[in-house]
Amino acid sequence: MQPRRRAPRILTAALAAVAPLVPFAAGAATLITNVDGWTAVATAAETHETVAAERFDALLVDGARVVATGDAATLRARAETLGGELEEIDGGGRFLMPGLIDAHGHFTSLGYDALRLNVTGLRSLADTIEAIRAYAQQGTGWIKGGRWNQELWPESRFPTADDLEGVTDRPLWLRRVDGHAAWANHAAMRAAGVTKDTPDPPGGQIIRDADGNPAGVFVDAAMDLIDDVVPEPDEAQLRAAIDEAQRIMLSKGLVQVHDAGAGKREIDLFRELAADGSLKVRLYVMLAGVPTLEQFDAPIDDPEDRVDVLALKLYSDGALGSRGAALFHDYADDEGNRGLLFIEADELSRIIDRAAAAGWQVGVHAIGTRANRIVLDAYEQVAEKYPDAAGRRNRVEHSQILVPSDIGRYAELGVVASMQPTHATSDMFMAEKRLGPDRLAGAYAWQTLLRSGAVLALGSDFPVEPPDPVYGIH
Fold first, then answer.
1. To the nearest whole number, what is the mean pLDDT of the chain?
2. What is the pLDDT of residues 324-376, one digit of tens each?
3. What CA–CA distance (Å, rounded) separates 456 from 446?
4. CA-to-CA distance for 243 and 270, rounded, in angstroms?
5. Strand partners for 175
6. Closest CA to 25 of 77, 87, 79
7. 422-443: pLDDT as tens digits
8. Using CA atoms, how far apart are residues 65 and 138, in angstroms rounded to an integer?
9. How far is residue 428 from each of residues 67, 122, 250, measured CA to CA in Å?
10. In sequence order, which residues have a C-beta less than 8 Å from that of residue 3 and are 6 or more positions away?
11. Given 113, 169, 269, 346, which residue has the most CB atoms within 10 angstroms?
């Protein structure tokens, strides 16, 4: 069997932003030679030190599956056993490694963020307002976007609607970097009918001025007051967001994401795009809460693993930066505030029980000590009632601030700690202000969790954090 050769081409390099995917023909064998290859052969959990790896200079693929790595001569002989034609690609000495999976991201949000007003990293309120002013000159209607972070500003305070007076007449709605608070101008609040008399909803907070008027920032469940009147993206905008999200992912070497909360409309389109070949990445989808769960009869296990719909995403609390993470004790920089619970413990247990009975994996967002304890307690109840639930590997999304005595429970219960390493570096100048030094003992504790025997699933939480996996790996 003589290989059919063709000219060298660019290979998939997981860390090279310019490398497109190599299109392997279904049912055909492909041998890629002359590469500087790297692949992991054991995880840090197995070695208890670091990822074990091996280098190679050739890769054999049969259809869409990797057969083996090694040297070219050995793999040519191996290819003989596969039968059929062999296509050979000269890698030209380029670096080749497996594509990476982000275990917690927000797929369509990544695309929308790239297509909307994005103020990520701006270092002052004044710079942020100027970016808004410039953007507002384009188009009409609602201004959406965000990723502002008051912790980066000299003012170190939440922005207000008054800050935007004279900037634009268009209603404006910008989410904070963590997605757990958002900033509205007066036009947006008028459109939503929010006034001094509007009460704080359960699990949410309207930030108010000294006279009790809504100041412009809405935390967690209070964001629904504005969200409910913001126009939904149309299908063309959704398709554009998906295209942009997968372009960004592939440019960073990401080939799959665990999409942490999608609605039925999005999931239906994901599956349509996968069927016609337009979806270039793989998605492991978590349903966006109970309303989405009610629209599905059962989990969807895609035999080709293009769009698996196997999990339910819930929220227990908010985020640390907006002081919505649920704690056992007051915030160190906000006396009397212990954060927000999105859902009471009994109700959370009831929903998880319902999901377990229907065969769903569950991933619950939990940042603060109290929220994490409540989620672990709920999983313990499920484990007692459904002995096979451990096989579904229920997850705590973020597992960010733990009481140290809860760390060992992950391994005991078979619960996955779904964590994002770059949250630690992003929060390093803020976390101690919020928590004080003592509570940091159980914060961002992935090494301690790993040593305790827990399984970790690491990701970025993009677009809250940059999607580039290099930051988390470092």
1. 92
2. 999 999 999 999 999 999 999 999 999 999 999 999 999 999 999 999 999 99
3. 8
4. 11
5. 146, 182
6. 87
7. 999 999 999 999 999 999 999 9
8. 47
9. 43, 18, 29
10. 31, 76, 79, 86, 87, 88
11. 113
3-state secondary structure of 9: coil
| CA-to-CA dists, residue 375 to 105, 188, 435, angstroms | 20, 35, 20
Instruction: Name the residue type at position 318.
Output: G
Binning pLDDT at 50, 70 and 90, where does residue 26 land?
Answer: low
CB 189 within 8 A of CB 226: yes
In the DSSP assignment, the letter for residue 294 is T
State CA 323 to chain mean position distance.
20
**What does the alpha-carbon distance between residue 18 and residue 10 come to, in Å, rounded to a whole number?**
9
CA dihedral 201, 210, 431, 342 (to 10 degrees): 0
Cβ-count burial of 350 within 10 angstroms (0-12 exposed, 13-18 middle, 19+ buried)? middle
pLDDT digits (tens, 9 = 90+) for 210-232: 999 999 999 999 999 999 999 99
Helix (H) / strand (E) containing 271: helix 264-275
Q: What SS3 state is found at 180?
A: coil
Phi, psi (rounded to 5 degrees) for 10: -70, 140
Whole-number Å distance between alpha carbons of 426 and 369? 19
